[in-house]
Design goal:
Length: 314
Amino acid sequence: MALDLWVEKYRPRKLDEVINQRHVIERLKVWVNQKSIPNMLFAGSAGVGKTTTALALAQELFGNQWKENFQETNASDERGIDVVRGKVKDFARIMPLGSEFKIVFLDEADALTQEAQQALRRTIEKHSNVCRFILSCNYSSRIIEPIQSRCVVFRFKALTKPDIEIYINRIAKAEGFEVEKEAVDAIMDLSEGDLRKVANILQACSHDKITKELVYEISAQVKPDDIRQMLKTVLSGNFEEARKQLFNLTANQGLSGEDIIKNIHKELFNLPLEEKAKIDLLEKIGEYEFRLNCGSTPEIQLLALLAQFLKYKK
Ligand SMILES: Nc1ncnc2c1ncn2[C@@H]1O[C@H](COP(=O)(O)OP(=O)(O)O)[C@@H](O)[C@H]1O
Ligand SMILES: [Mg+2]
């Protein structure tokens, strides 16, 4: 592999290496011992281990021959269910190698239309003698009932801060770098619990010592501290200084108006303001965001929004 992507390099190969999701892993391990699995539906948000778990399961079930017995298809990539059916048919035609069944993993199954899902249901039934299906989706409610009732549904949990720390430490230890405590918080903030994003941020930083500043700089993201500081400045009545701080964000750091306004929104609720003031400002933020989306000049709109904060100066 020319490009060594950490998302792949640090993808667990064994079920026991999957972080959290114990409720899923423990059941799967029992089935691995029995060498038999049902059809399954993996539901959960992005980057919490659905694909990883399916891959690890296949490796534990099939050993060296896992690639011959495992097929991964992305339902939203392929043009329609016919391609999926064709691929599944071709895959199922060849007998499993050293096992009684093969696994078809269908990612983003909830991207399929209702009609396509009906066709998928028939495909599942038709090939049930040689294929087990693992469907992955964000929301199980988007999968038609006849498919759900043919699958054991597993809900993958959102990963917590300690989970993400385990993953960061794994990579940091293997790559031999240090991650500052505050950088961990920054990565948590930016990744929103998606470990794929965590791996990508770390790889982009890859430095002996990863700091909070580096994380925000590399990902070209707004630092919450900067926004907090700017809002505090304007609320203290120093509009000129706040204007300079804003200029630093737009001109020097090259951040987009949308990102800045999104972060002003995030910080609003932490400000020492009365409820009424927050509600008024919330409305303003909505109004200025709309103007930005309509294509007006970010510098002017953001500055005008800051002027709104001036009304509530202490
Ligand atoms: N629970 C987990 N334990 C360990 N690594 C994980 C876990 N979830 C995600 N990852 C990491 O994030 C990457 C993306 O995970 P993946 O399983 O593809 O997510 P998805 O739930 O979107 O299918 C993997 O390559 C792996 O490195
Ligand atoms: Mg996936």
